[in-house]
Amino acid sequence: MTGQPPLTEDPWRLLRRFTDARIGLGRVGVSLPTRELLAFQQAHAEARDAVHLPLDVKALTAELAGIEGLPPAIALRSRAVDRDDYLRHPPKGGMLMSEDAESLRAEAPDLALVIADGLSSLAVQRNAVPFLQAVVPLLSDVRIARPVIVTQARVAVGDHVGALLRARAALVLIGERPGLSSPDSLGLYFTWMPEVGLKDARRNCISNVRPAGLDFARAASKTVYLFRQAQALNLSGVALKDRADHVGNLASSTRTFLSPPAP
Amino acid sequence: MSYRSTVGGHVFIFATLTEVMAKATPDRAGDRLAGVAARTARERAAAQTVLADLPLATFLTDALIPYDRDAVTRLIVDTHDAAAFATIAHLTVGDFRDWLLSDIATTPVLTAIRRGITPEMAAAVAKIMRNQDLILVAKKCHVTTAFRGTIGLPGRLSTRIQPNHPTDDVNGIAASILDGLMYAAGDAVIGINPATDNVAQASRLTHLMAEIIEQYAIPTQSCVLTHVTNTLECIEGGAPVDLVFQSIGGTEATNASFGFTLSDLAEAQDAALSLNRGHVGQNVMYFETGQGSALSAGAHHGLDQQTCEARAYAVARHFDPLLVNTVVGFIGPEYLFDGREIVRAGLEDHFCGKLLGLPMGCDVCYTNHADADQNDMDTLMTLLGVAGVTFIMGIPGADDIMLNYQTTSFHDALYLRRVLGVKPAPEFDDWLGRMGIMDSTDGFRLPGGVPVGFARSLARLQP
């Protein structure tokens, strides 16, 4: 018996030039072709492994030392003792280990910088330093505290660090949950007047910082915008809306390849 | 008053109704994290026995979060329909399970008592129901809503196209929308999670989707999943907003952590209604929920996460939503640890939502730090399909490249159509037929090829 091949390819697969999304996969009947099934399994395996890869604190500290205008970093631990403890008990990741907390003094800087491994150490390892290289020169008038690296850490650890330092603002750089197409996505969380126990509505988030996502220059300019706005309004979070138009690749157009040709 | 029960010769005593509810809940990570879960299997069985013996009316007098301390409690109490409740007023929680499964509880009867059921009653009975019970009763609950298409009719399954892109690139988004449409998806909504929370961006994405929907006359609606106050600003700025989105929780404090109050929702609903953009209905709200959000915000008042979740449905119900989506596996393993817990929670949420009269969909999903995989998703989506779920997500290849998690794919929805015979919303189904994308009267075949209008767009791109 011969006849039609079981696999139907999608003629719009060429649209993959616009996106990393898994479009145009083709189908067998209405199901996923074997080649796509296997590609997915492989990506899932890589993302699963990224969650458990430990942050190389030594290498990161050395790289941070190369950034001009930044004091030497210090490495601290959260209260989660290992990855399993971290995954099951998020509050532990939001607080510093008591003895580690004692090493921070109330220096009252303008900005506390907290670098947290989060759910992807890969994101921090790859993207924290180039982001800081982009943002630090834009904040030359701002007194930045020595960067605090925290392992097994959640976003809220920035509140703890910020409060101990008595910082006016805290910026947390954290590894976001790894995706199949982006195991190295860095998240930035900005909080004005950080204090322990504050609500998420008081934070502003800049997501997906990585070369293939939001690039470092744009992430840096958004960060500076948030800092200046927070300074002016004396707040952060939902009430501090990002009205600035930083998203260069959108321009002002909503025209896409689907739009009718311009007359 | 305290509650007691004996299991295996051991007497278990529970100090409060809250404790009975929490300890009667099938085991899950979030309740263990909160320290409210039963410590042993016997303690759980004892709590379930106590719970089954409680009159439903208990929940009308014994508020789990006090009336004067919580706006959601006030909403639940103030909108309770005593006349609708009269039919089931004499039942205990255990009797209620029997009644729901019995032939007395037909679709019209279930519709008639809806407004007499509080979220706590729904949550309580769910705790003593097996998965098959949750499926069977949910299947009997029919909830229909409408905007440009009619959502939730029996024998139908709708899908959301979720065309997210990590930088909101307009062509990247349009590419995923086209992929979804060619795979017969998108009748529930085309809904974008924007990469950042920005009014200008939300407005632009709203225009982008409105232009595509108009150009191809697609009987569907769009939504940018941004904060309710952003959407309100978009509307004030003249953007063509179809649906207003908001993540909601089951306590006032959870919603405060999300940065909104019930009056914000009312204001946004009024604003969207004033645009009058629906063709066959005016349900203009799209809500998302998920077990664990209250605990995550430190706003659970000692309640278990399933009860908090059900209370969120009272918030949703008050604003006549087109769609409600429980994003069941998104929040992470500290709330739902593995595939087994995710499956159970998905079925509970769908059941409670439907029983309360909501157009309940489910984001059948997991993150890469949870102990779950595609097989678990196949199990949950199939069970929900059997239960008559209103809609599921549709995303290219199950991989959300912006939110970094896995949800159901366009292919997955077509699998459900074929095994269960469920069609898209009628208006959208007709459109698919006219466009030659899918014939739902012929085994859900996709003839292949690309409809003329879309083909022209592709042709302009050829290298």
UniProtKB/TrEMBL annotation, chain A:
Subcellular location: Bacterial microcompartment
Binding note for cofactor: Binds between the large and small subunits.
UniProt enzyme class: lyase
GO biological process, any: amino acid metabolic process
Known catalytic reactions: ethanolamine = acetaldehyde + NH4(+)
A single Gene Ontology CC term: ethanolamine degradation polyhedral organelle
Pathway: Amine and polyamine degradation; ethanolamine degradation
A single MF term (Gene Ontology): ethanolamine ammonia-lyase activity
Alphabetized UniProt keyword annotations: Bacterial microcompartment, Cobalamin, Cobalt, Lyase
Its EC number(s): 4.3.1.7
Cofactor(s) recorded in Swiss-Prot or TrEMBL: adenosylcob(III)alamin
Binding sites annotated in the UniProt record for adenosylcob(III)alamin: V155, E176, C205
Entries under Pfam families matching the protein: EutC (PF05985)
Origin: domain of life: Bacteria
Predominant subcellular localization, coarse grouping: other
Similarity comment: family membership: Belongs to the EutC family.
Subunit structure: The basic unit is a heterodimer which dimerizes to form tetramers. The heterotetramers trimerize; 6 large subunits form a core ring with 6 small subunits projecting outwards.
Family annotation (NCBIfam families): PRK05465.1 (NF003971)
Role of this protein: Catalyzes the deamination of various vicinal amino-alcohols to oxo compounds. Allows this organism to utilize ethanolamine as the sole source of nitrogen and carbon in the presence of external vitamin B12.
UniProt-recorded name of the protein: Ethanolamine ammonia-lyase small subunit
Naturally occurring in which organism (per UniProt): Loktanella atrilutea
From TrEMBL, chain B:
Organism: Loktanella atrilutea
Protein name, as recorded: Ethanolamine ammonia-lyase large subunit
Single Gene Ontology MF annotation: cobalamin binding
Cofactor note text: Binds between the large and small subunits.
The keyword Lyase belongs to this UniProt entry's keyword annotation: yes
Gene: eutB
Reactions catalysed, as given in the entry: ethanolamine = acetaldehyde + NH4(+)
Keywords, alphabetical: Bacterial microcompartment, Cobalamin, Cobalt, Lyase
Transmembrane segments: none
The protein's Enzyme Commission number: 4.3.1.7
Amino acids binding substrate: R160, I161, Q162, N193, E288, D363
Keyword Lyase: yes
Binding residues annotated for adenosylcob(III)alamin, in chain numbering: P194, Q246, S296, M402
Oligomer and partners: The basic unit is a heterodimer which dimerizes to form tetramers. The heterotetramers trimerize; 6 large subunits form a core ring with 6 small subunits projecting outwards.
Family listed: Belongs to the EutB family.
Single GO BP term: ethanolamine catabolic process
Main subcellular location of this protein, as a coarse class: other
InterPro entries in alphabetical order: Aldolase_TIM, EutB, EutB_dom_2_sf, EutB_N_sf
